[in-house]
Amino acid sequence: MPETAHMTERTFNRVSPLQDVALQGRFGADKGAVGVTFTVRHPMSIITVIARAGQGAATAAALKGHDAQWAGPDQYFVLAENRGEGALYRELKAKLSGLASVSDQSHGRVIIRLVGPRARAVLAKGTPVDLHPDAFPLGKSALTQMAHVGVHLTRVGADSYDVSVFRGFSESFWEWITEQAEEFGYQVI
Amino acid sequence: MLIPCPHCGTRPVEEFTFLGDAAPTRPTTNDPSTMEAWYEYVYLRNNPRGAIEEYAHHSGGCRSWLVVSRNTETHEVFGAVPARDFTRAKGAKA
Ligand SMILES: [Zn+2]
Asked: Which long-range contacts (C-beta less than 8 Å, at least 24 apart) are formed by A87-95?
């Protein structure tokens, strides 16, 4: 093998596990405005941060300015769009050295965004978490289960939510959640 | 039953995995002189009717280990604390 072959940086196109499943279009009830609009956020940088013992406050402070979502006591998912492969991981690993353990979950999870007047009603079919804005305000996250799948749920807007699931569950979860939205009419963009 | 997770708020019992009585203290060495204590810890468990403090893992939520205090007879749940706080408090008492 020529010497240069070792130096060539190989790049892979990241393929969403929902690429051939989340087909675009309008589905379900076809009268009036759609109740929910689904998008698959892809490709994302998704980094798990777990604070070391006694470093919870310092870790939270160091994450200021990042899109850091609560994911358990002293634990976070830090998200970013349009960062290169591993870039956010390397940045946080350096920044949180000694404060927290950092691991790259970008390829392991899939984030589905629900937007629309019936988004909350769709999610409420699957979780016991109180999604009323008083109890679940903008930016709040919850770890729970929907349709037997562990989900990380975040309110990202007045009627917008992100649902993050393990990659391997994403196809069956997609089938379940879109079925719940059929009565309201939904679109995939 | 509803469990008040200190991290997640009130959640249904289906989200939790129970391990058992949190009262027995695990021996800390494998020294042969502790075999009797190990035997007692592993096999000789009570099965109380009434109040119990029990390990519970919020496996369908924040994945934290908790200690839930509840009543086995009435299914009343009195509260839940992080298991590490429970263990530290127990250590402080001993
Ligand atoms: Zn919890």
From this structure: A87/A45, A88/A45, A88/A47, A89/A45, A89/A47, A92/A47, A92/A49, A92/A66, A95/A62
